[in-house]
Amino acid sequence: MRYLLILLFLVSSCRMYNREEDTVAAPDVTEIQIVDSEFSDYSKEHGMRKALLEYIDDDGVMMRDNALPIKGAHAIDFISSMNDSTVELTWEPQGGDIAASGELGYTYGIYEMKGNNDVVERGTYVTIWRKQEDGKWKFVLDSGNQGIGND
Q1: What's the pLDDT at 151?
Q2: Domains in the chain: ranges and CATH
Q3: For residue 125, how many other CB atoms are within 10 A of its CB?
Q4: CB atoms within 10 A of CB 27
Q5: Can you name the residues that pair with 122 across neighbouring β-strands?
Q6: pTM of this prediction?
Q7: Which of 34, 67, 80, 91 has the greatest CB tally within 10 Å of its CB?
Q8: What's the pLDDT score for residue 11?
């Protein structure tokens, strides 16, 4: 009888598990792709320097050709010193994903940089994003490489 009472107590104290109630909706990857597209639009409208400054995380890292990674305040200083008056940089996300936590994600795609001398450089890029406390996404890593049909 004693074991029966203990068993009844355990069963009644356990919460009935309902998987449907406990599942959390997976983050929607289109959210981060929209942010990446807005980043590109901002670059086209205001210049790549302003766009990079607007979208970089305080600890953001930039990877550039023939250079060591540039991080945080150094990256911001590097961006601030850029002269983007002769180029237009735009890009288009082709894919990406967001972590189940909804705090980190990445996008990748194709970029195009046009100079005032009609030279067009195309390449691929990857950007890693972190969601900020205010809900905005900022990039924590930005990298690209040249090489797809450059003029």
Answers
A1: 55
A2: 27-146 (3.10.450.50)
A3: 19
A4: 18
A5: 112
A6: 0.79
A7: 91
A8: 37
Radius of gyration, alpha carbons of the chain: 23
Count of other CB atoms within 10 angstroms of residue 5: 9
State the helix-helix crossing angle for 48-55 and 29-46, rounded to 10 degrees.
140
Tokens of 2: 């004693």
CB 147 within 8 A of CB 53: no
Cα-to-chain-centroid distance, residue 41? 15
**Which regions in the chain score pLDDT beneath 50?**
1-19, 21
Per the CB < 8 A criterion, the answer to whether 109 and 92 are in contact is: yes
Nearest C-alpha neighbor of 48 from the set 147, 139, 132: 139
Full strand arrangement of the beta sheet holding 137-146: 70-71, 56-63, 137-146, 120-131, 104-115, 87-98
Give the dihedral sign, CA 59/125/32/88.
positive
> Pseudo-torsion of CA 49, 51, 55, 57, nearest 10°?
0
What single-letter amino acid sits at 8?
L
